[in-house]
Structures are given as structure tokens and as C-alpha cells.
Design a protein that fits this description.
alpha+beta, 213 residues, 8 strands, 25% strand, eight-stranded antiparallel β-sheet
Length: 213
């Protein structure tokens, strides 16, 4: 039986609650290689216009940040360093730009592991080709790749085939990009820490708004 999809009422809550409750849920994405499913294991909350770590701090409503202002459950995919995608899901209701950054997933099944490996290999081999190096194969790929298929925002998007084309998707309605129920997570399994890569955010850099299993 297919796992139950998360509906609007799940996402239409504050970003801290949504972030913690996304742990253990399953992100589903249709790719050219097939359907890939990842169990969410690490997230970060971004709490809108008063959060100095957020793209919308101070009311920055731009073409880039517009998806954060849309209804909870909307995807927000942006580029970092001009090359890597980061995947977020909007929380709260329309007009309140809170969001959850997905930092890490693990394959939910062996088929997803196969697809994630293939997509990561494809990306690594593009880099190796630019460097004039021989490509890796499924048998020759580094063991570190298997151990860290999607343990970072950029790796997650590569492994799950998520690109800027997946930005501003209503994940409550989409048949190709959505979140389902997954593992039952107890509060005692959740750890909290500082968000990563936002040293510029002054006191907000110290908020314990990163949650992981």
C-alpha cells in the first residue's frame, strides 16, 4: 500500500514545527531514471522576515524568494555558488515566508539507492570529463559516494534529480514531487544544532534551528 501523502494542513504550520515533523518523512521525486524516494534525516528552519538568516529577512519579496510567500507545501529551489541547487519547502500560509531547508536524506529503498547512485555518478563524471579524467563506473565509484549519497543540500538535489525546474511547485497537488508519511520518529531521536553557512546572520546564526536524527 502506498504511503499517505502529506496534505496542506501539515505544511500550514510554523516552520519549526514543520521542520521537526518532516524528519522521517519521505521525499518523492519523479526523475528521468525513475521514481526516487528519500527519508528526510536533517532539516533547517528559516522563519521569515524577522530571521536574519532567511532570504526574506526585512521583507525581501523578490522574484527569487516569491515561492516562500506561497502556501505551505510549495517548493523553493535556489542555486548556491551558481551551480548547486538547494531544496526547501514553504511552511505556514500564503504571505508568511517561512520555509524548511532539506539538508539530508537516505534512500528509502534499494531502487532509490540505485537511482541516487546513478545520478551522483553522472554528476561526478561530468566534472571528471572537464578535468580530462576517466569516468567512474558503478563498480569503480568511491566508497565515500555510497556512504554520503545525499548528506548535504547540494548532494541531496543531485541524488534526487531536483533542479531549478522544480522550483515553485505545489507539492500538495503535484503527482511528481511530493512528501509522504514515513518512519515514526520519537522526540528523543531528534537533535538540534546551529544552522550551517549563515555566519553573516549575527545572533540568528546561533539559533538552534537545525534538526537531525
Amino acid at each position: 500500500m502506498a504511503a499517505e501523502r502529506l496534505e496542506r494542513d501539515f505544511f500550514a504550520r510554523d516552520g519549526l514545527t514543520v521542520a521537526k515533523e518532516l524528519l522521517g518523512k519521505i521525499l518523492v521525486h519523479e526523475t528521468g531514471c525513475g521514481t526516487v524516494r528519500g527519508i528526510i534525516t536533517e532539516v533547517e528552519s528559516y522563519m521569515g522576515e524577522t530571521d536574519k538568516g532567511s532570504h526574506t529577512y526585512g521583507g525581501r519579496r523578490t522574484e527569487r524568494t516569491e515561492p516562500m510567500y506561497h502556501a505551505g507545501g510549495t517548493s523553493y529551489v535556489y542555486l548556491i555558488y551558481g551551480m548547486y541547487s538547494c531544496m526547501n519547502i514553504a511552511a505556514m500560509r500564503e504571505g508568511i515566508p517561512q520555509a524548511v531547508l532539506l539538508r539530508s536524506v537516505i534512500p528509502a529503498d534499494e531502487e532509490s539507492r540505485r537511482i541516487m547512485t546513478a545520478l551522483r555518478l553522472e554528476e561526478q563524471n561530468r566534472r571528471r570529463a572537464r578535468q580530462g579524467k576517466a569516468p567512474y563506473t558503478a563498480d569503480s565509484c568511491p566508497g565515500t559516494l555510497q556512504k554520503s549519497l545525499a548528506d548535504g543540500p547540494g548532494k541531496l538535489c543531485i541524488a534526487m534529480g531536483i533542479t531549478r525546474a522544480d522550483n515553485d511547485i505545489d507539492m500538495v497537488k503535484s503527482n511528481k514531487f511530493y512528501v509522504t508519511e514515513g518512519q515514526v520518529i520519537q522526540a528523543s531521536q531528534i537533535r538540534a544544532g546551529k544552522r550551517i553557512g549563515i555566519d553573516y546572520a549575527e545572533e540568528a546564526a546561533d539559533y538552534l534551528w537545525r534538526f537531525y536524527l
